Each structure stands twice: as structure tokens, then as C-alpha cells.
Amino acid sequence: METRDKRPLFERFDDADVRALIEGYPLAWVCGGGAGALEASLLPLVGVYDGEGRLIELIGHLMRSNPLHRALIEDSRATILFSGPDAYVSPEHAGRRDWAPTWNYAQVKVSAEIAFDETLTEYSLKVLIDAMEAARARPWGVEELGSRYQAMLGRIIGFRARVTGLSGKFKLGQDEDSATLHAILGALPDAGSVAWMKRFNRGR
């Protein structure tokens, strides 16, 4: 017998949804340092997953001069916020004047413990560049920087963010009736939001 998902409607997602959002929208707010010295920076991150596809850590790097570096040395706990596609949805998109406008979005919040590691710095660059350049006809590599690469390495440091908690919210039209949903899908100009709305409304 199938068990009914008792989570709130917009909080029903799986590990594959988390991975797709992180890979599609890797630039995240990394916030940390404790209440007395809160710092935040946008940083690109790459996920690491276990054999079941569950996110277990994130790999990244930042400038040593970034105040977030010092704040996370003093307190390694961090909150990491991934923001996926978002779009304002007008009654015009819904084809209904008796329908209130709304905003659709996808987000994942990760609680993590961050550990800096100088030996991870080059690897953190490699996995990010490989991920971002993979689809290009001529993928770029760090060796093309020449002597500038070593100078750059001295200014940054890699880190692992071990996941200690995760939550998400995917508000993507799951509460709309079928006719309204399909009207929005046909009229909304934001292709990213439409793709994610279709992902969360399969079979409707």
C-alpha cells in the first residue's frame, strides 16, 4: 500500500530534486560566523552525494580575504541557501481575472559544518570548472592561465561543507487546478520556471 506523503504540499521533494536544483543553480548564499559576527557571501558550490543520491556535502572555495573566511574559522556552522527558478505569475498568465497573482519559486536550505582545507583548494577549483565547462565544445582548463594560476591559488582556500540538515520549498503550481496550471504553463515566459513547474506537476 502506498503511504501518503504527509509533508506540506510545497515541501514534498526528493533527493533528485535537490541535486537538480544545486546543479542547475550552483551559486548559493553561504551565511555563517554566529549571531555576533554574521557574514554572508555568494559562492558557487558543487554537491557530493552518497550511493542513494542523498546530498552529504558541498565543495567550494573562497578568497582568504573574505570576512566570511574568518567568521567560519571562529564558528564553523553555516546556513547555505540555494535559490532556483522564480517567476511572478499574473492573472493574465492564468487566464483568469478572479485569480490572485502569486510568485513561484524553488529553494533549498542546507545546514552545514564547514572545514577549510588547503589541500582541497585545487580540487575545489577543478570540480567546479569541470562542472561548468562540461557542455562546451572546447572546455576551458586552469592550465591555460599559465603562471597566473599559482599566484591565484595563494589567495583562495578550499572547503568542505558537511551537511547536517536540509529543508526545501518548491512552490510550483501544485495547488492549481488543471486548467489554470496548463494556462500558466502555456503563457509564462520564464522557461526555467516552466520546466520546474512541469517537473513538479507530472501527470497532470
Commentary on this structure:
This protein has 204 residues and is an alpha+beta fold. It is built from seven helices and seven strands, in the order H-E-E-E-E-H-E-H-E-H-H-E-H-H. Strands 2-1-5-6-7-4-3 form a seven-stranded antiparallel β-sheet. Strand 3 and strand 4 form a beta hairpin. The longest helix is centred in the middle third of the chain and has 13 residues.
As a percent range, the share of helical residues equals 25-40%
Question: Could you tell me the mean pLDDT?
Answer: 94
Number of separate strands: 7
**Multimeric status of the protein:** single chain
Helix/strand-derived category reads: alpha+beta
How much strand?
25-35%
Which stretches are low in confidence, meaning pLDDT under 50 for 5 or more residues running?
none
What are the secondary-structure elements, in order, as H or E? HEEEEHEHEHHEHH
The radius of gyration is 20 Å
Tell me, what's the shape? elongated
Order of adjacent strands in the largest pleated sheet: 2-1-5-6-7-4-3
| Tally of helical segments | 7
What is the rounded distance between the termini? 22 Å
Mind describing the biggest β-sheet? 7 strands, antiparallel
